[in-house]
């Protein structure tokens, strides 16, 4: 009886110590900062310290293998902890530091990828229904440990403690992707592996691999060797993509590369071990210049045999109607094209176990089709009323090829334009409009609106960033919600961050573009909608910046920069309005060309520049610490931006 009384007292005390909302109850350095925010998180007072030698005990050795490897790697590398692994029912009650438990009967509340993570005074346990859940639980556990756990070298003098906590967590969406464009710039197999590792920290589970485009064909197709002999190579150029001079005939075409089929198998296996699927994209019928340069007979256009893989020189007039200056499309009226596609997708389908194959379909300029007698005669024969229907004819034939290989057909939202066959899935990129339309027609949808999820776009002011087409600030990415009002949420499979690489030449810049917007998108895809909170997110992002610093992952600090709010042409006098993306910052400025610091004037409202001033310099501080970049903004540039 006494014991029962004691037990009740302990339970009450334990539940009280967990009852405070985390963000108010803990000093900043003690606050738990998991990204994406878990479904339920209760932080206790106190912590559990990992001993110098510890045992990870697993209820199912095979199911826990990836998770054990992850923990073992981190704990030995950064913390120098000696990790032993044991398993089997007999050891279930041994005193071990970390237990990985696979449920014998499913816990319906956490689904296939969910987990329960408990950090108690007696040790840590992660429970899940499936191996993926254990892995995600371990990723959260790593985020509970001191930031130095991110180090690739041994860090001495750290107490390797995790705050006491009870976490129940599972994703909002099963499709949590990042698209990597390896066609515009090629990234090696080893670089892609690191990219996958970085994705998994934040519980992304799909790598959408954009494997072909006008600038390169990146996958070995054994039946079509010229795709990689010719199509994988262009002329190295640096500067602003799309503005490069046309390569000379004698310039070496030795820039690029491709993955052999063995490379692809290795990548697929590597990703699978980390619970990431790889979805291949072969982008047709537009964006196909690398294929046409390899096999000119795939074009409707005379002279295609002279075509070369694009090296970043302009060949497209963008506008309401796309006009290609070089025909980069596969010909829908050419039977050889369908034979080609069958060969390509036979090999692609056998290499990638993922259910879906992405077939592109975006930005297909039709001006050369309009001039083609073959396309006109196809249209007559098939009663196709316009060029969109000609593309739809192509897509339907391609869909048959894809489904015959046992795969599901997915394309960018342009595939809706001439009518979509049942069973096709749509990736909505021109906003969410295409996704809404597709869902209303009963098609599956993946949301990737360029307004929120295009992480190739600039994240700060164009004056500070490598120039790309437009901007998506961090806050915009955080506002991403894959389910628009009025749409059947069951048809929305999830969403993605899309990382096009026209202007990305190396992996450091890949990282800079993905983080922290990737954090915002990860949270939009994993966390419950009602748990999203911008200020709370930023608090955690700043803690993850410290982790990135230790992991030596590059990221953008653009969220600290002031926003130059554009004024109107009619404003008289001309004035400069500044805004901030996050709270708690002060902006200091100068008009005298010197570098402002916190002893300079502080921005408190619209600025009227002195008559002869040419430059506004600004920098943001938090208290006494500079946190933003020193930005030099010509006054004339601001005048040019007036609307
Ligand atoms: C796309 O961004 N062209 C899909």
What does this 3D model show about the protein?
This protein is of the alpha/beta class. Helix 9 (335-351) crosses helix 12. The protein is built from 19 helices and 27 strands. Mean pLDDT is 94; it is low at 1-24. The protein starts with a helix and ends with a helix. The strands form seven sheets. An eight-stranded parallel β-barrel has the order 8-9-14-17-18-19-20-21, surrounded by five helices. A seven-stranded mixed beta sheet has the order 1-7-5-6-4-2-3, covered by helices on one side. Strands 24, 25, 26 and 27 form a four-stranded antiparallel beta sheet that branches. It folds into three domains: 28-169, Chitobiase, domain 2, CATH 3.30.379; 175-285 and 331-555, Glycosidases (TIM Barrel, Alpha-Beta Barrel), CATH 3.20.20; 561-640. The radius of gyration is 27 Å and the shape is globular. Bound molecules: acetamide.
Entry summary:
With 643 residues, this protein is an alpha/beta fold. It contains 19 helices and 27 strands.
Query: What is the tally of beta strands?
Result: 27
SS-based class: alpha/beta
- CATH class of the largest domain, anyone? Alpha Beta
Give the spatial strand order of the biggest sheet. Answer: 8-9-14-17-18-19-20-21
Write the layout of secondary structure elements.
Elements: H1 2-17, H2 22-25, E1 40-49, E2 53-58, H3 65-77, E3 82-87, E4 98-102, E5 115-120, E6 123-128, H4 131-144, E7 161-169, E8 175-181, H5 189-201, E9 206-210, E10 212-213, E11 216-217, H6 226-229, E12 233-234, E13 255-256, H7 261-273, E14 277-284, H8 289-294, E15 316-317, E16 323-324, H9 335-351, E17 356-360, H10 367-370, H11 373-382, H12 387-404, E18 408-412, E19 425-428, H13 433-440, E20 445-447, H14 450-453, H15 474-478, E21 492-499, H16 507-514, H17 517-526, H18 534-551, E22 562-565, E23 577-580, E24 586-590, E25 615-622, E26 625-626, E27 631-634, H19 635-640
Parallel strand pairs: 2-3, 2-4, 4-6, 8-9, 8-21, 9-14, 14-17, 17-18, 18-19, 19-20, 20-21
Antiparallel strand pairs: 1-7, 5-6, 5-7, 10-11, 12-13, 15-16, 22-23, 24-25, 25-26, 25-27
Helix pairs in contact: 3-4, 5-7, 9-12
The structure holds acetamide (ACM).
Acetamide is lined by residues 362-363, 412, 429.
């Amino acid at each position: 009886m006494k014991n029962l009384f004691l037990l009740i007292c302990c339970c009450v005390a334990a539940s009280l110590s967990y009852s405070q909302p985390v963000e108010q109850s803990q000093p900043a350095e003690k606050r738990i900062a998991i990204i994406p925010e878990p479904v339920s998180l209760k932080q206790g007072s106190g912590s559990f310290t990992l001993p110098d030698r510890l045992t990870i005990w697993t209820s199912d050795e095979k199911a826990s293998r990836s998770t054990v490897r992850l923990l073992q790697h981190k704990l030995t590398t950064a913390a120098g902890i000696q990790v032993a692994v044991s398993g089997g029912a007999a050891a279930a009650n041994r005193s071990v530091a970390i237990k990985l438990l696979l449920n014998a009967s499913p816990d319906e509340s956490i689904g296939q990828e969910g987990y329960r993570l408990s950090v108690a005074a007696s040790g840590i346990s992660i429970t899940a229904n499936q191996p993926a859940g254990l892995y995600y639980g371990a990723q959260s556990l790593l985020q509970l440990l001191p930031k130095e756990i991110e180090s690739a070298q041994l860090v001495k003098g750290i107490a390797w403690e995790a705050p006491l906590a009870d976490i129940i967590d599972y994703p909002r969406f099963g499709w949590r992707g990042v698209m990597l464009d390896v066609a515009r710039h090629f990234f090696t197999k080893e670089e892609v592996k690191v990219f996958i590792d970085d994705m998994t920290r934040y519980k992304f589970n799909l790598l959408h691999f954009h494997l072909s485009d006008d600038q390169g064909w990146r996958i070995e197709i054994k039946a079509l060797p010229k795709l990689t002999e010719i199509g994988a190579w262009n002329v190295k150029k640096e500067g602003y993509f799309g503005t490069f001079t046309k390569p000379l005939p004698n310039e070496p075409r030795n820039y690029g590369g491709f993955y052999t089929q063995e490379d692809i198998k290795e990548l697929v296996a590597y990703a699978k071990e980390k619970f990431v699927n790889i979805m291949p994209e072969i982008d047709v019928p537009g964006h196909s210049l690398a294929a046409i340069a390899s096999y000119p007979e795939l074009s409707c256009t005379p002279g295609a045999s002279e075509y070369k893989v694009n090296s970043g020189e302009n060949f497209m007039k963008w506008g309401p109607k796309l006009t290609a200056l070089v025909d980069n499309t596969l010909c829908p009226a050419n039977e050889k094209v369908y034979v080609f596609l069958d060969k390509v997708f036979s090999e692609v389908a056998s290499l990638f176990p993922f259910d879906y194959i992405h077939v592109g379909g975006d930005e297909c300029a039709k001006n050369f089709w309009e001039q083609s007698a073959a396309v006109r005669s196809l249209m007559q024969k098939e009663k196709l009323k316009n060029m969109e229907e000609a593309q739809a004819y192509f897509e339907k034939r391609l869909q048959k090829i894809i489904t015959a290989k046992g795969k599901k057909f997915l394309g960018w939202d342009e595939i809706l334009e001439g009518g979509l066959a049942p069973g096709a899935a749509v990736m909505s990129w021109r906003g969410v409009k295409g996704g809404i339309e597709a869902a209303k027609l009963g098609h599956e949808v993946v949301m990737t609106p360029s307004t929120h999820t295009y992480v190739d776009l600039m994240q700060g002011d164009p004056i500070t960033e490598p120039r790309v087409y437009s901007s998506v600030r961090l806050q915009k990415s955080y506002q991403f919600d894959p389910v628009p009002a009025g749409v059947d949420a069951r048809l929305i499979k999830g969403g993605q961050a899309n990382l096009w690489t026209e202007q990305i030449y190396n992996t450091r810049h890949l990282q800079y573009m993905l983080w922290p917007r990737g954090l915002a998108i990860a949270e939009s895809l994993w966390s419950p909608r009602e748990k999203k909170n911008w200020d709370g997110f930023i608090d955690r992002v700043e803690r993850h910046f410290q982790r990135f610093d230790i992991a030596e992952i590059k990221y953008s600090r653009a969220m600290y920069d002031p926003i130059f709010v554009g004024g109107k042409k009619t404003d008289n006098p001309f004035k400069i309005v500044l805004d901030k993306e996050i709270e708690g910052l002060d902006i200091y400025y100068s008009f005298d060309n010197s570098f402002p610091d916190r002893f300079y004037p502080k921005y408190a409202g619209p600025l009227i520049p002195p008559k002869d001033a040419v430059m506004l310099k600004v920098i943001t501080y938090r208290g006494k610490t500079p946190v933003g970049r020193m930005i030099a903004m010509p006054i004339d540039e601001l005048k040019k931006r007036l609307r």
